[in-house]
Every structure is written in C-alpha cells, then in structure tokens.
Amino acid sequence: MSKFLIGLFIKFGKSESLRRAVLMMLKDAAAKSDNDIDDAIVKMIEEKLFPVKMSNDTFFNIDFETPTPELELSVELRCREVMKSNDFDNVKRYCTHLIRHQMRQDLFLAGLLGRLAELEALVAIKEMKESKRKNRQTIGRQIKKIFRIP
C-alpha cells in the first residue's frame, strides 16, 4: 500500500495544491516535536518547493475567512462560561463531547482534502491530455503546414 501512495505522490507531485498539502502536514508534524532540526528541514523544503513565501491564510488556493466579531464574541462568552463553572462533571462531559466532535470533523476534513486532491489530479490529467492533443501532428496538419494553408 505504501508503494502505491509513494507512486501517487510522485506522479502528482507537480500539482501545487498537493505540494502545499504535504508541506502543511510536515509543518504540523514539526510543530508537535520539541526539537528545532525538523523545523529547519521543513523550512528548507518549503524554500525549495515554493521560492515565494507561502501564506498561512490560504490552502488549496482557498482563502481562510476571518471570523466575524459576533462569532468571536460568542466563542469568548462560551469559553468564559466554561472557565467559571464549578460543575466538574458537566465540564468533563462537555470536553468529551468536543473531543468526539473534533474526531468527526477531522474525518470529514480528511475525506474532503482527499477528494480535493483527487479532483486536482483529474484536472491536471485532463490538461495534460488536452496539451498532448493540441501538439499532436496529424498528416493533414503537416500538409497544411508544408503548403502554408490556413
């Protein structure tokens, strides 16, 4: 299975979106470690893959929206409500619910990113086939070219 995935990454490695996805996964993994060596390696990989600095506000050419002030206020009020609560059992239930909900969100986003990468690959394949079709020299085109027929 890993040979298949490696072959897939090599085949579609020319896709900028896939390279950005892999780079973001590497950054996330490097951020979780406690040494600086992997951070330096990820920075070097980023500089080689993207000579122009990659923005943290975009992913797959999708801009991250800034939350509205109303949404930020709502989140802040809920956080303060949890912090001042003395009912530890309800806080524990709330935390376990959030952990389970985050798992479902992670699964959904992983599936979404996989589908997005698949669609990017299909578009790349279609573009390659189209460019090959346009560059193909048929006998009729060669005759027109020789005799300069429009």
Q: What share of the residues does DSSP label as strand, in percent?
A: under 5%
Pick out the low-confidence regions.
none
- Mean pLDDT, nearest integer? 79
Main sheet overview:
2 strands, antiparallel
Task: Please tally the β strands and state the result.
Answer: 2
Give the strand order of the largest sheet, numbering strands 1, 2, ... along the chain. 1-2
Radius of gyration, whole Å: 24 Å
Alpha-carbon distance between the two ends: 52 Å
Structural class: mainly alpha
Q: What is the succession of H and E elements?
A: HHHEEHHH
Helix content: over 70%
Question: How many helices does DSSP assign?
Answer: 6
Count of individual domains: 2
Distinctive features:
150 residues; two-stranded antiparallel ribbon; 2 domains; mainly alpha; 75% helix; single chain; 6 helices
Task: Summarize the entry for a quick read.
The protein is mostly helical and 150 residues long.
Descriptive account of the structure:
This protein is an all-alpha fold. It has 2 domains: 1-65, no CATH class; 88-150. Helices cover 75% and strands 3% of the residues. The protein has helices at 2-11, 16-32, 37-49, 69-84, 88-135, 139-146; strands at residues 58-59, 62-63. It has a two-stranded antiparallel sheet. The chain is elongated.
